[in-house]
Design a protein that fits this description.
This protein is 63% helix and 0% strand. It is mostly helical.
Length: 220
């Protein structure tokens, strides 16, 4: 009965708008737990974070969310579920992103942004269009052997293009279930699925490499 009176397109928009608040809550929580010390100026931690357990849970959440996005094409009531799952995955991803950036320090590839920007880059206007990609590209290269590091970061580039496409389509697509016809809904849901799949692939690739080994020192 709820699906008959609730505009699930508007619900999804409100949930996406709450994303920065959730990311901000992660920042406050990390500061309270003293996980960061002057994140925009100094490296807060010298040893590596374990990434593989976190990445396994995150990939599972992302996979379930991709299935929910696909189901939303047939059942519009799943839009709210898929968007909520996307926000949960986003908070988990920001934690993973920060830890991966810390682990990339001292791996032989210069990092253009400090670890604190791994969180701030998602909420600071204007720079949030390219800072996250720069950070991810540097993390990606830090986990590669020496010869391939100079190549273009193709996987992070595809990931970022999919993510930008999804957010742009979701922000500027017409609101209302009456206007969300199939030729409008398909690009939004399709880009959402691609963004989720590419995020899961990138997380798995980085975490299964040298940056995900908890026993390995960053200077080794």
């Amino acid at each position: 009965m709820l699906s008959l009176v609730v505009n699930w397109g508007d619900v999804s928009r409100w949930l996406v708008m709450l994303g920065p608040l959730l990311v901000g809550a992660v920042v406050i929580r990390l500061v309270q737990r003293r996980r960061m010390s002057r994140p925009w100026g100094r490296t807060p931690r010298s040893g590596p974070y374990p990434l593989r357990t976190l990445s396994a849970v995150l990939v599972t959440v992302l996979t379930a969310d991709a299935a929910a996005w696909l189901g939303a094409i047939v059942l519009p009531m799943l839009v709210g579920v898929s968007t909520f799952g996307f926000l949960v995955a986003m908070v988990m991803f920001v934690v993973w992103f920060y830890r991966a950036r810390v682990n990339a320090e001292g791996r032989g590839w210069p990092q253009r942004r400090s670890p604190g920007w791994a969180i701030a880059a998602w909420v600071v206007p204007v720079v949030n269009f390219w800072f996250p990609f720069q950070i991810m590209a540097d993390i990606w290269r830090a986990g590669l052997p020496e010869p391939p590091r100079a190549n273009r970061a193709m996987l992070p580039g595809i990931w970022w293009a999919c993510l930008l496409a999804f957010f742009c389509l979701l922000s500027y697509g017409p609101a209302g279930s009456g206007h969300r016809v199939w030729y409008v809904a398909m690009p939004i849901y399709g880009s959402g699925v691609l963004a989720v799949i590419m995020t899961a692939l990138l997380v798995q690739k980085v975490s299964s490499g040298p940056l995900g080994k908890s026993a390995q020192r960053l200077g080794d």
